[in-house]
Amino acid sequence: MAQVSTNSGSGLAATYANLADAITALNAATITDPVIITLDALNPQTAPAGGYSITASGSATNTIVIHGSSNTITAPSPQATGQLYDALFKIIGGDFITIEGFTMQENPANTATAAATNNMTEWGVALLYASTTNGAQNNTISNCTISLNRTYQNTFGIYSNSTHAATTPATSATATGSAGGNSGLTITDNTISNVNMGIVVIGPFAAADHNDVLTIGGIGNANTILNYGTTATFSAFANVSATVNGILVKNTKNTGISYNTITSSEFGTTSGTLYGIQNAVSTNAPTGTFTNSFSNNSISLKSGQANGNINGIYLDMTTASTTSTLNINNNDFNNFGHLIPGFGYGDITFISNAGTHLNQSISNNTFTNLDLFTGGDIIFISNTNTLPANGIKNINNNSIVTAFDKNDTGGTITFYTDNGDSPNGTIENNNNNKIISGNCIRNLKHH
Fold this sequence. Notes:
By secondary structure, the chain is mainly β.
């Protein structure tokens, strides 16, 4: 009995017995008109070993949509022993593909977590290149629920990496040219949970080859990333920061990350720095005019490591150009903290930008319901950078609201710091940043 229906586009049959057969046919087809593949409702599937691999490419007019009808896709058991490139779905060099409406889950029978002998699933969805000049571009992952098993350290909800081949994730080999990276990636309306890392996007090395346009969330298209984070000690996936992240981005410009809810595991990260959103150090700093925006996100982070540092939104100094624009606006930071009161010295920084963008806005952010147990330093906003000529910094209307208490006398509290030395002709506005009355604050600094 057929479980899959199609629109018969590009020569596909009207029906297929299962999703694996439909994807095999898709990969063999010449895409000459739009393709829609629908896994009919009430037909859960077990993915093939290593995951469904999609290698077909659509175009802006001849798109490919794979619709899940809320069906559950379960990983096979076991995955290949010691393999580090298993997924539920992989797009390898495919373009203009949408994967939507699936529930993806690890098989509960897969429990071996040691990397060399693991039988588990690394990626919910992976986007990888077919060759260093043929990346996976203009793809969309939408309205999916992804849950793996974060006790396995090598788990990623959605993983896009343009610096290794599909079967050698620990061997760095960057994509090149405008077609090599994974530009135009859209990630919306997904719920990702029970992973060590939520979303990872790594672009090619050369500034001219960086991923261009990344959309994660948006108005009415928010992603929810929750119960992520176990350890920063995981296998050496090429050019992936050895930290724990809700969203990690590197070598990518024109990035928009907005309206997402990012909630770490409850004191579940036992080693390494815990991040909500990290725009990590670029292999080569981007060039040209672009806009990166990190806005309207709700971030909650709790580390299980007493001395572990926590960063809400962190943007490295190498993620800007002298003509770029940065927006960090309307985010809410809530329910941060460490597991062990009175014994930890982990620092907490809610917003940190070191990039020398021409135009910078860090405004209307709120810091809500914070009851922190650490003897480390607390910084609400760090924006230390030197503006380019004619640059503008707007740091306005940021507020500590509801409740704030630092339950340890050690360390300092800094609301805003900027030690940059900007040239004449630049503009810096710092207005109406406030602390709502009724909060318990000691040793506050503002400079």
